Amino acid sequence: MKPIRVLLVDDQALFREGLATLLSVRPELRVVGEATNGLEALEKTAELNPQVVLMDLRMPVLGGVEATKRLRAAYPHVRVIALTTFDDDADVYGALRAGAVGYLLKDVRAHQLVEAISAAARGESVLQPSVAARVVAEFARLTEVQSPTPLAEPPVERLSERERQVLRLLASGASNREIAAALRLAEGTVKNHVTSVLGKLGVRDRTQAALQGKALGLL
């Protein structure tokens, strides 16, 4: 299988170079280029055709949120993961609204970052646990504001108990590997459960599954 093509976007040269070194030792990944700001990220994407872009948010010339919005509009097949120092609401919701499929902080462990890149390339969403919890909480708040009448009884019977366990863990931001460890299952079995959960909830990715699960009272 061909390695995943990754573009690094960050205005801090030392961090960018360290990240490139870290990822270059992984055979499943290939760092195809680096960019120092959002505008350069757009140019590099057109030139290098990455599958996944690791995007810092606060950069000169063009910030990561606006760059993500433009990049997703021009290259919808490219997956963007926000990789930043900041986790305030404006950054989190701005990046996700712009089309980022993931949001990670720069203190993330190396193996978690590699798993996130692989997941994004497969079409999955990846959120740091603290960020995932805030997104779900914000969705719940908006649901309460916009739905003054009680919601219909959630169709909890549609998910098995194991699927609900998987849903709760993925809503916390856990990867398939972490879910497998927590539930003592094979990673392939977890992948099958996640696929089943997404299908039963009628959603495309893990973030939407978490939001839908919260709306239906499953979390």
TrEMBL record:
- Does the keyword Cell cycle feature in the UniProt annotation? no
UniProt modified residues of type 4-aspartylphosphate: 56
Which Gene3D superfamilies does the annotation name? 3.40.50.2300
Q: What CDD domains would the database entry show?
A: LuxR_C_like, REC_NarL-like
Q: Which GO terms describe its biological process?
A: phosphorelay signal transduction system; regulation of DNA-templated transcription
InterPro entries, per database record: CheY-like_superfamily, NreC/VraR/RcsB-like_REC, Sig_transdc_resp-reg_C-effctor, Sig_transdc_resp-reg_receiver, Tscrpt_reg_LuxR_C, WalR-like
Which SUPFAM superfamilies is this protein grouped with? Answer: C-terminal effector domain of the bipartite response regulators (SSF46894), CheY-like (SSF52172)
PROSITE patterns per record: HTH_LUXR_1 (PS00622), HTH_LUXR_2 (PS50043), RESPONSE_REGULATORY (PS50110)
GO MF terms on file?
DNA binding
Domain HTH luxR-type span(s) in chain numbering: 152-217
Q: Where is the Response regulatory domain?
A: 5-121
DNA-binding as a keyword of this entry, yes or no, is: yes
Name assigned to this protein: Two component transcriptional regulator, LuxR family
Q: Origin organism of this chain? A: Deinococcus hopiensis KR-140
